[in-house]
Design a protein that fits this description.
Distance between the termini of chain A: 51 Å
Largest sheet of chain A: 7 strands, mixed
Strand order of the largest sheet of chain A: 2-8-7-6-5-3-4
Strand content of chain A: 5-15%
Helix content of chain A: 40-55%
Shape of chain A: globular
Oligomer: homodimer
Structural class of chain A: alpha/beta
Order of helices and strands of chain A: HHEHHHEHEHEHEHEHEEHHHEHEEEH
Chain lengths: ~400, ~400
């Protein structure tokens, strides 16, 4: 008697989650140090010490009724002002608190944007490789997902394929750069070309094609890679952010939707985002954590660890003969599977207690995702297994 | 171009919120002590001191990556076990952690239950007077709300009206006892009769009519009023809870859905609740606050203040001639409006800087809601205004 879609969502375990659970079972048998689990994107570095200090300060200094009480639905005004000031400084823009809508993380932010922008029958374009939950969230909004196939040389955009997908039904396009799972960052050239195409199509279709920039990995960019600020390049951009990765707070569920005033019908878009938050049961983002985010929004955890891990793994895997696209950010590596069947390769690795996720789950077969947000010794321990697999398959 | 439903939700300010905003503006003009704001249901007593102590202890003792990291989607297993043990003890039942799904508060829990249980075309029955957001959440689940008219003598259930509403389309019935806004508690006799009727109809319709018990006010019950544990009385009960009121943590968004194993197709219902959480973008409930709830789940804030406020206001208003139903719990009083037009009476009060909410917003015209979760001096200050209104209208 239950809703079949919800049942399917609840019963379908993701490949990632299955690998992770398998790893925990294996660890109980062979010992944790002999399981090389690269399945989950859970930050491995501690939050900056200011996180603990701020929490202590907040519970000491603030009136507890105000600290733990409801905030206004879009978030505490002082919190939003502080975050807006930080964005203004960092991106040389004029962001105001009233353009921000605080959310329980990026997933909630995406759901709010999609429900706000989509009508039944609309389409939303995503780019492979992609975060698989996009499909779920787009369906919740009553729209259909159209996947632009991966450009697997530099993991930028296949513009011919994108142009073919754009239509008067396109309500929104989602970009995720730095990208989970490819680790690529869209260059300014790529984004300018994207902006030009979307402007042209918006004019042609007589409706704005909104761009949703999902950027929880913004701060994890390597070797000075520039992560362009999209609202500067494309007028109709909504930014969805989360502090999950930058402050290592994924369980606390805190992020925002930024609806710049420049956006077409921005007041209506903002109101619809807030209305979607209401419809989905989000009363406000967690109140203590809102204040924490405001106090720490200019800080990050020690993200250099990820760059070191990326460098080590890339060098070693390339020496073994793997084809590894240049990692530019995030904590994922997305090498080519040595055999076309990435699921088979993942299973072969799993038989050696090396857990890596097949690219097909990200709409990009022929690759595997290595989540290297793990202790260094796990990477070092896994290298002989990667080598054994290379010798067998390459 | 935005979604019209979401826009309407975002633009429609609730009467409650409008009164509250008006109060803030007036306070700036005439001084806060001259505005008698009884509009909002925001707890006025501090959380118990253990809340602050527990937060300090958690940030000191726990590995910060684990403390702030993702938990499993239904919540940290140890947290769920601890809460289950507390429920088992308190209600003489056998509740297991795996029957609990932690949520970002009761609103999220209601959305998850409704999306899990409803198919398009289904109906959900609620009882006036009712929390107005029910209508929004039911619509999100694609169902239609059918409101059972209020029984305004004792604010129990009009069973003839309920029976007329029950049909093969009824997916669920929502009860909220102790009740916002009436302050009434359903007696064991009322709930047994409800259970008998729903059992009969479930058999007749060949589908279980699930009962959703929305009980954030469970612990705020006066003079030893018993708040019966519904799963003991009706097999197909889901419990939705929030610590917002009992621990004075409404901004922290923490609660649960309890799907007892006895429920028809309980495994499927639980999976669908979890699937709905996924579809709505709830990755997990806030991780630090999950641990806080587990540590403090047997405690409450000092709730006696509400009972004292209830007694004072009831006595005084009755002496002035108002008809005030006996408050049994919550922090709301729901007297009859002295004139049939409750909105007009609310406006007359507003003109004297007394802010009380018309009952029509709760599908129960002819009454007004007084949220007495306020400092005592505000109640005392408001009494002359209530008296002046009584002299004018009674």
């Amino acid at each position: 008697m239950v809703n079949r879609d919800m049942l399917a969502y609840g019963q379908a375990r993701s490949v990632i989650r299955e690998l992770f659970e398998y790893g925990r079972q294996r660890a109980a048998v062979v010992g944790e140090e002999h399981v090389y689990d690269f399945s989950l994107g859970n930050p491995s570095v501690a939050p900056p010490p200011e996180v603990e200090e701020t929490i202590r300060r907040l519970v000491s200094e603030r009136d507890p009724c105000a600290l733990h009480g409801y905030t206004s639905a879009p978030g505490d005004p002082a919190v939003r002002e502080r975050i807006a000031a930080s964005l203004s400084r960092r991106f040389g823009t004029v962001c105001k608190g009233e353009e921000l809508y605080l959310t329980c993380g990026a997933a909630a932010g995406l759901c709010c944007c999609l429900c706000a922008l989509c009508q039944p029958g609309d389409e939303v374009i995503t780019f492979a490789p992609l975060f698989p939950e996009y499909g779920v969230f787009i369906r919740t909004a009553g729209a259909a997902m159209k996947v632009c196939p991966a450009e697997t040389e530099a993991f930028q955009i296949d513009f011919a394929a994108l142009e073919a997908l754009l239509s008067p039904k396109t309500a929104a396009v989602i970009v995720n750069s730095p990208n989970n799972p490819s680790g690529a960052v869209y260059s300014e050239a790529t984004l300018k070309r994207l902006a030009a195409l979307l402007e042209e199509k918006s004019r042609a279709f007589g409706r704005p094609v909104y761009l949703i920039s999902d950027e929880p990995y913004r701060e994890i960019a390597f070797a000075g890679t520039d992560v362009p600020w999209l609202p500067r390049l494309y007028r109709d951009t909504l930014v969805v952010y989360s502090w999950s990765k930058s402050l290592s707070l994924p369980g606390e569920r805190i992020g925002y939707v930024y609806v710049p005033a420049q956006v077409t019908e921005s007041a209506q878009v903002y109101a619809a985002v807030a209305g979607a938050g209401r419809a989905l049961g989000y009363v406000c983002a967690p109140s203590l954590i809102q204040r924490l985010a405001a106090a720490c929004c200019d800080l990050t955890a020690d993200l250099t660890v990820y760059e070191e891990n990326a460098r080590l793994l890339t060098r070693e895997l390339r020496e073994m003969g793997y084809h590894v696209p240049r990692p530019q950010g995030t904590f994922y590596l997305f090498p080519r599977s040595p055999i076309p069947d990435d699921a088979a390769f993942s299973r072969a690795a799993q038989a050696l207690d090396l857990l890596i996720v097949p690219g097909s789950g990200f709409h990009c077969p022929g690759h595997v995702r290595i989540a290297f947000c793990v202790p260094r010794r796990r990477i070092e321990g896994a290298l002989p297994v990667f080598r054994a697999l290379a010798q067998r398959y390459l």
